[in-house]
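Suppose a colleague, Dr. K., hands you the sequence of a protein chain of 597 amino acids and asks what its three-dimensional shape might be. Before reaching for any lab equipment, you can write down a predicted structure in C-alpha cell form. Begin with the sequence itself:
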Amino acid sequence: MTKADKDGLVKEQEGDQASKSDPPSNGGDKSALVIENIKTVSIDNEDEKKKEDPDYEKNKQNKEDGNSLSEQVELGLEKLKNNSIVAEKTFEDWVRRHINVRECCKFVKKKDNKDDPICKCGNKRSAHIQRTVELEGGSKWEQSSCTTLIENNSFGKINFTGVDTTTQPHYMRIAVDNGHKDTIKKLERLLTEFWKLNEPDLLLSVTGGAKSFNVSHDICGSFQQGLLSAAKSTNAWLITGGQNCGVMKLVGDVIGRSIFTSKICTIGVGNWGKTWRREMLLNKNRITNTQDLEDLHPQSREPMVNYTVDAPAKGYATLDPNHTHHFLVDDGTAEKEGIEIDFRGELESLICNMFTKDGVSLPMVTIMIEGGMQSIDQAVSTLRKGKTLVVLKGSGRASDILCYGYEHSIEVEREVDGALVKERTLTDACHAEMIKLIEKDFSKYKAQGMYEKMMDAVMEISTYRKTVTIFSIHNPEPLDFYILSSLMQSSAGGATRMRQMRLAITWGHAKVAKEFIFARKEYKFSAEELNSLLLFSIIKQRTEFVKLLIDYGANVREFVTQAHMVRLFNELRTSTGGYRLLQEKRKKEKQDRGVSR
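The predicted structure, expressed as C-alpha cells, is then:
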C-alpha cells in the first residue's frame, strides 16, 4: 500500500466518522467499517491487558501520541486480516474486504463546468470522495500520488431499463491494482463460489472494433452464427469488452436472441471511467426490498441497481445488457483509454489455469473482427502466450491489414552476430501496399508512430504459422469449423491429443478429427484411450465418432464391460430433459427452505 493509499484511506475514515449525517457524494457509500472492525478486534483483549499492566493506560497514550493515524490504521488493518473474530459472513463482506476501487483524492481543476468544475483526473468535483484535498489549478496531477484505494462501492447485479432484456448480469467495479499476477487469483473464488459459474470446455475471447465499427451484414451474420455454434457445442465462456457497441454488441445480440443460450457465460471487461452513467452503478442507488433479494438466502444476496441504456456522450459507452457478467476496471481517472487491457489478459490466463486438466490448461481461442491498434496488441499478446488466433478477413481496418501482412510475408534469412536467423518480411511492393492500407484507416495516428508500430506487430504475428487461422466468408466451412481447426493444428491453446479429441466430439466435427488428429502419424491412441473416447462419444450421442473410432481400431468386445455399461446407464439417464428439470426443482426447493429458516 503506497503512502497515497494510506493517507487516502485515513481521510476516508476521518471523513466518515466526522460527518456520518452528511449525504454521500458521487464517489459512493462511505462508512466507518474499517475503524469499527479494528475496534472489534482490539476490544476483547483490552480488559486483560489492564489487569496485567498497571501502567497500561499511560503507555497506551504515549504510544498513540507517537504514531500517526495512518500508522494506526495500517496496524489495525493487519490485525483485521489476521484475526479470526472478523468473519466473512456474506458476499458483501468478502467484496469489501478483498476488492478495492480507486478514487481521485486530490482535486486539481482542469476546466470550469458551471458550478461543478472538472478535475485533471477527468471527474467532476462532486464525484470526488469526501475530504478530497484541493490543490492549485497549475499543480501537477499524477495517478500514482493523487488517487487512493477505497472500499468497494459498486458491485452486485444490474436491472437494465430502457431495453428489452430479461438478463440481470452480475457486475464488479475493480481497481486496476487487482490485475497484477499476485492479486488476481482472488477472483477465482468470485467466479466459482460466489458467481457459481460452471466449468467451461473452451474460452473464446472476442476482440475488434467498437466506435468505428463498419462491417458488412454477411460477415456479421457469419460471425454470429459461428460464435453461437461454437459456444453452444462446447460449453464455452465468452470474453469481450462488454460495451453496447461494435463487435461487443454483435456478441450480446446473438446471445440475447437465442433461446438456447441462457447458460452461456459472457463476461465483459470494460473501463469504469469510460462507462456512461456509471454513477447509477454505485451501491448507494441500490434497489431495496425487491422480490429478487427476498428470494435469496442472506449469504448469497447481492446489491441490485437500475441502469438505463441510452445514447452515450462522445467518448463513452453503455454496458451491453445481454452479457451475464461485467468487470469494470478502474484506475481513478475518467479519461484514459485501454486501462482494462492488461487486466483482461491476466483474467484470461487465470481462467485457463483454473481449469487445468492433466497438466494442460483450458483451450482458448481469440477471434478478431475489424478493430484497431488495441486489437493488434491483444492478438500479439494471445500468440505470445501460446494461444490461437482466428482473424476474419474482409471485416476491415486492423483485421484486413493483419491478413494482408500474414498472407504476403515471406521467410528470409539474415546474419545476426555471425549466425543465420530466419524472419519474415514483405517485398518492397507489398510493403508499399500495406502502408496504403494503414493510411486508409489510421492516417490521424501517423505522427504518433502508429505505422511503424502496426507494421512491426503484423510481422511478428506472421511468424506464428501454426497458431494463426485466416477465415473468410467465402471459405467452404463455417467459422466454428475454423475455430476448432485452429486448436487442432498444434498443441497451442492448451489442447493435447486427448483433450483435442474430446473437444472435437463435444463439437460434433468428425471431419476435423479425421483431418487434424487421425491423419497425423505421430498420434497413436492406446486401447484404453480408444475405449474412453468411445464411451464419451456414446454419452454425447455422436454416431459419426462411434463409427470413426471403431474404424480406427476400437474393440467393441473389449469395450462392453460391466463398468462401462453402468456408467453409460447413469450418464444417459441424467442427461435427459426430465432429469434436469427434476434437479432444478429440487435445487429451488432447497433454496426456499434456506430462506424460510
